[in-house]
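--- STAGE predict ---
source: upstream dedup step, 1 unique chain passed
mode: sequence only
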Amino acid sequence: MDAIFRIPKWPAALLLAILFLSACSEQKQDSGIVSFSGMTMGTSFTVKWVDQNTGRVAALEDEVHQALLDVNQSMSTYIPDSELSLFNKLPAGGEVDASEALFFVLSLAQDISQKTAGAFDVTVGPLVNLWGFGPDGRVIKAPKDDEILLLQQRIGFQKLVLDADRKRASKQAALYVDLSAIAKGYGVDVLAGIMEKNGIDNYLVEIGGELRAKGVKPENQDWKIAIESPLIGERKVQDVLSVSDTGIATSGDYRNYFEENGVRYSHTINPTTGRPISHQLASVTVLMPTCAEADGMATAFMVMGDTVAYDYAVKHNIDALFIVKSEQGFIEKMTPGFDKRLVN
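--- STAGE serialize ---
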């Protein structure tokens, strides 16, 4: 199937943004839509839903904040005593009884790794740190080849072993697991679960631009999501999506990087080469049933590059948008299913 190509109105990669997103954390109600926002995982979050009952906002806000604290305490590599950090400190051969949440995310990550032939790999953490994109802090110089080769001995999702019956995780090497490419999406799904547990069927929840939508807004309208061109010093909308009942995630090489001698090094590390990606795919947005799936697959697509990733998306019926660098600027390449979601 031929890809659908479009030259963007503004030459930049994309960033998912909610049209109504506000930086404040005030509760508000507008035409039956209630929302609150706050900070988590080093970024902002927003919870928005259709409701005439504002009396339960405070209770929902408390529940959301506690749930996000729990996700962080389980999966953060920035919290020294988090469940994941303690696992990472174990030597080769170490194993632990994992919480239900951590085991679920590890299992999903391993499933995506299997399906993408290792393009997605949560054991790439040591290389992420080596290149200066992890909790160890920034670097200004690319690491040496021998440093990369040494750490590659510790990389490989096959070395992370999960026992589904006992909910145990073990490591066959001195693994350092980094869930930053999937935990935020999982956090969004947790927020969605809170909404549904409380009988709310029309909502839009997001963490740092990763989203999940269900149902409709008042007057039976789909939720509208803006795709933003991240131009320096200004904000412009590149595309608008009409969405319902889906998770949405974006990955790109345009926000988190460093430069040395005119070379830009992306934060997205190819597990096979041990180096930042160097192809022409600048950004990808993925729609899947859950945000955790979309989050992980967006990273896998960034590693694959636009040609392989597009073919994979079409074969597996995944709606996706790719922003590709070209001599003429940035070009949009999207699957037919994604194209149908655009608001003209």
